Amino acid sequence: MSKLVECVPNFSEGKSIEVIDKIVAEIVAIPDVKLTDKQMNADHNRAVITFVGPPEACKQAAFNACKCAMKLIDLRTHKGEHPRMGATDVIPFIPISDVTMEECVELSRSLAKEIAEKLNIPTYLYEESAATPERKDLAYIRKGEFEGLQKSVKTDPLRKPDFGPSELHPSAGATVVGARHYLVAYNINLNTNNLDIAKAIAKAIRFRDGGFKYVKALGFEIKERGIVQVSINLTNYTGTPIFRVFEAVVREAERYGVSVTGSEVVGVLPLQAMVDVANWYLKLENFSANQILEKKIWGGENE
Amino acid sequence: MSKLVECVPNFSEGKSIEVIDKIVAEIVAIPDVKLTDKQMNADHNRAVITFVGPPEACKQAAFNACKCAMKLIDLRTHKGEHPRMGATDVIPFIPISDVTMEECVELSRSLAKEIAEKLNIPTYLYEESAATPERKDLAYIRKGEFEGLQKSVKTDPLRKPDFGPSELHPSAGATVVGARHYLVAYNINLNTNNLDIAKAIAKAIRFRDGGFKYVKALGFEIKERGIVQVSINLTNYTGTPIFRVFEAVVREAERYGVSVTGSEVVGVLPLQAMVDVANWYLKLENFSANQILEKKIWGGENE
């Protein structure tokens, strides 16, 4: 089966379409790499590009994009609401299909090393690739942003990059690279307009307040429908599967005499996340995503 | 999204690997067509080839395979346990992804016409493509087999082919072409060794005895595990979805104080069949298989 990773680099440019189009051109020039999303935010002055492909191809695309951004984006004149420390601010790799998290960690380390060596941009490893527990957290690494880091990276040993010089690149700053899990955005709707119930259920299931390890959740009103919603970010759908969260919300809602009327997947999600749902409810024995006909065909397997 | 159909031609040769390999070579020579299975049975003296691809490519592959089989297989000397009437005995087309049943019916009619006109082999339309209710049934069309049809096709107006001459091809006989639904083979296991219970549940859910329209089912013993199994053929997973059959079996088993311990999908199944399961249990709103990341990537969509 063909290996597939997702890469979602964030660039510190949210206004100039020409700049972002030049960066995107570097990405789509790599064979087998497919662009799946491109978001620009002028207030944040930041762009988020999503692409998917075989691991090595994605690494090459990310490197070329980072090199291009170094030439076109100057942090010394950059202003925006979103915190940032580099022209290419952060590059996460996400395992999608037939790739382990370990392989993505290795990929991110190898890219971080290459950026540091070839472009002379200091790089930090975060999330699953982090060398210390604190550096798992992007906000911790980025504290002080471009301006603050210029001094502290030279003087504070805790701010020393994982690769490259202990000095920011004059215009491109520093870049954070790492591997993380796919994030599933998932909402569950309740047949009530009582926001307190949605908030109480969100609190019951989220990690922060004692709930599931990989759940972030909030309660919202959906005014136009006269209902409330438990809005969920699942930061690791393998560790905390969709069906388990759904069943927990159904049970919590019951306690208030309320029903779940529906749920929504926002955007796309990996095939395995859906297969896990069917697998659990049908009590499947020995089922594999490779039994999905389209995966057999499109995934490149042939006899 | 890219259109995908499956084609499963049956050829009257189950012993000579060379003959079948020549036929397969014709199929895989067509761009974008992928071979997914090849089964030969010497007792049946029959081969079943499965391939998948865009509709027109699959039609071309099926025509070339049929032409090749006409040259290499002679029904006058063919013997085997499985009923047959042609060198290429039957060619079903099955919609897999982003293709309607109507498109597959049209594809099968067009192929049946081409085989009749270019190869002078009479063709019959069956299943969803049939012109009359009786001809939906392959066994009805094939009654008397190659030997019996040689006479009746000339004399009995009910046996007249849909396309081509009212006379069998001297060596290649006649070919049945049509469109049908994907067949899902699905088994449900019970925590009892009482075969009567599996048989009673199979009877309750199958069409023949008043059950679901698209269910064929039997009860079996799985001796090595000391359990029984309801073995199901789902002839249309859209009309009678997997989850509905599963839930019905769970409920019927309860009536005997028995539990469902697991279920098995035999072989492969289309993505949509799995999405339908997740969709139902999670009460998804507006979910589409196009939200599966791999489909977005492998299905050929790009921005």
Structural notes for this entry:
The structure is a homodimer of 303-residue chains. Chain A has helices spanning 17-28, 55-72, 101-119, 138-142, 145-155, 195-205, 242-255, 271-281, 293-298; strands at residues 4-7, 10-11, 34-41, 46-53, 88-97, 123-127, 175-179, 184-190, 215-222, 227-234, 260-266. By secondary structure, the first copy, chain A, is an alpha+beta fold. Chain A folds into 2 domains: 4-179, Formiminotransferase, N-terminal subdomain (Formiminotransferase-cyclodeaminase, Chain B, domain 1, 2-Layer Sandwich); 184-269, 2-Layer Sandwich (Alpha-Beta Plaits), CATH 3.30.70. In chain A, the strands form 2 sheets. In chain A, strands 1, 2, 3, 4, 5, 6 and 7 form a 7-stranded mixed beta sheet that branches. A 4-stranded antiparallel beta sheet of chain A has the order 9-10-8-11. In chain A, β3 and β4 (46-53) form a beta hairpin. Chains A and B meet through β3, α7, β11, α8 and α9 of A and β3, α7, β11, α8 and α9 of B.
